[in-house]
Amino acid sequence: MNTDENVLDRTLKRLEYDTEWDIDRAEVTLQRLKSDIAVQKRKANIFKRFYVASILSSVALIAFFIVSNVQTIKDTTSSFLNMSGSSTALYYEENDRIILTDKGLERTVFPVDAEKHMERIIGAPELSMYLTEDKTLTGQAVYMYALGGSISIHTQKNERTVDETMELLLPHKKFPATSYTSEEIQIGNERGVLTQSNQEYGGVHLQVVTENFIYYFYIYNDLTIKTSSDEEIQLMKDDLIQLASLLNYENEHLSWK
Questions:
Q1: Band of residue 84 on the pLDDT scale cut at 50, 70, 90
Q2: How far apart are CA 115 and CA 128, in angstroms?
Q3: Coil, strand or helix: which one is 27?
Q4: How far is CA 171 from the centre of its chain?
């Protein structure tokens, strides 16, 4: 009898243990399920916010491109109007460069129609302009040249008097240089120095001195003293002098404000 009671007692305890374990396991499973649901909700909210942010970013990017294109069209239209001469502006700036309008070209020192007056100048010059601190326009000009290469005009502010600068450019009276020969010439109302190299690979160049600037005229080509005939050397000298005489030196004093 006792044996049967013991067996029954153990059986009941086992059943009770299994029942409690199943309840605990069910509770754990329920908690895990709730936790998984919460995680999925958070992920869904994060995805929703990310999706909305992506849409807003795309809209902002499209708006930026639209505004940029509209501004580009405005700038292009403005540049076209300036270049066509329909504006009273003398110049406009584009990519850190100063571009002269038709009205501005009329005021520059450099001749834009030199090809009409000189046989060996080809086409209009390429101008690179800038404004000085006192709003004077200066820069450089490059002219294509029929004898090969180009004639380039560079400018430099004259910090001295004309006489002082000329004295520096001309050969020393007591100790003249032997590598080149220089002579003073007159370019209209301005004074100049024409120089010819005595070296085989040298060339010829011209400097014109005004109250405000020094103009340097150089010929860039393959012709040198060694490879040039006397006639070609004389032609280059004549062309430098003729081009220098076409400059509008009186326009140095014009204001570009």
A1: very low
A2: 19
A3: helix
A4: 40
Helices (H), 128-218: 162-169
pTM of structure:
0.67
Identify the pLDDT of residue 134. 79
Question: What does the block give as tokens for 22?
Answer: 């199943």
Residue 166 near residue 209 (C-beta atoms within 8 A): yes
Token look-up 């970013």 returns 57
Q: What is the pLDDT of residues 212-246, one digit of tens each?
A: 999 999 999 988 888 999 999 999 999 999 999 99
Residue type, 151: I
Cα–Cα distance list, 72 to 56, 65, 81, 94, 179 (Å):
24, 10, 14, 12, 54
Alpha-carbon separation of residue 129 from 64, 78, 82, 250 (angstroms): 33, 20, 16, 17
Residue pointed to by tokens 């520096």: 168
